[in-house]
Amino acid sequence: MNAHPPLTSIQQPVVQVSNLVRSFGKGPNVLDGLDLSIRAGEFVALLGRSGSGKSTLLRTLAGLDAAPAGTVTVPAERAVVFQEPRLVPWKTVRANVALGLRMADAQERAVAALTEVGLGHRLEAWPLTLSGGEAQRAALARALVREPKLLLLDEPFAALDALTRLKTQKLVAALWRAHRPAVLLVTHDVDEALLLADRALVLDQGRIALDLRIDLERPRRHADPGFASLRSRLLSELGVEEEEPTPLTGSPSIDQGTSASLKTYPASRTSQHDRVTVAARQAAY
Ligand SMILES: Nc1ncnc2c1ncn2[C@@H]1O[C@H](COP(=O)(O)OP(=O)(O)OP(=O)(O)O)[C@@H](O)[C@H]1O
């Protein structure tokens, strides 16, 4: 018998990035010696001002960028969902999800994945007949059917209307709890990060400038002091001015877990960030 039992899968890193450097042409380094480790089953939200390199990092992890300088270790079993669903228009929804699957039961798996995202009734539909929310759910099914160890989400809710966005966020939270892949979610929305993730990163000047652990067990509401403190910390690091709370603040409409115990992180470089305004709709959480 092994005297030293193996680490549980939840402790093992699935992503290891070391000294990653990326520039475009003669421009400055977009990623500049970036280090990052993501463990199995972690839900990591990646924030940062526009142009800070979030999508570049995601594309690198997806294997869609040029061979990077530095060391990048990622699992082969990974899938990406983009802001646009990117479904093949001349294939049915079911065929889109089964596309490229080699196993004998590919069709059954596609049906199961589509049923799980609530599209069991649209299996033979053409992508162009789907609503934006349905198309994005189909894209999620296409990713999940591959049973990824790493799910890369590049602003997947950004093109959806507010209500559909909330529903799709809840779906992603449920899918994560059911399948537990490691997730890297690129988002501009601090509240979305706090709602979904158990870790929030801020990318700045080509590196991870802030790395916050989020306690999943506490309510994620603005009225919760832990949530408010974590939210302020992220907004400050992003150089965002917090607005006065609206009457919607603290709404318990989404109720699954909470806020925050802070880890150590480098000193803030807020002054170098763009100044932007937080949208009032963020208070709807
Ligand atoms: N293919 C490319 N060719 C030239 N420059 C690029 C390319 N891809 C990205 N860049 C540049 O790299 C920088 C980082 O871009 P990236 O899309 O990764 O940022 P981002 O943080 O995802 O931005 P946003 O939040 O606005 O989507 C930007 O200055 C961008 O113009």
UniProtKB/TrEMBL annotation:
Residues 15-230 form the ABC transporter domain. One of its GO terms (molecular function) is ATP hydrolysis activity. It comes from the Bacteria. PROSITE patterns: ABC_TRANSPORTER_1 (PS00211), ABC_TRANSPORTER_2 (PS50893). Residues 241-285 are annotated as: Disordered. Keywords: ATP-binding, Cell membrane, Membrane, Nucleotide-binding, Translocase, Transport. Residues 248-270 have a biased composition (Polar residues). InterPro entries: AAA+_ATPase, ABC_transporter-like_ATP-bd, ABC_transporter-like_CS, ABC_transporter_ATP-bind, P-loop_NTPase. Belongs to the ABC transporter superfamily. This is Aliphatic sulfonates import ATP-binding protein SsuB 1. The lineage of its organism: Bacteria, Pseudomonadati, Pseudomonadota, Alphaproteobacteria, Hyphomicrobiales.
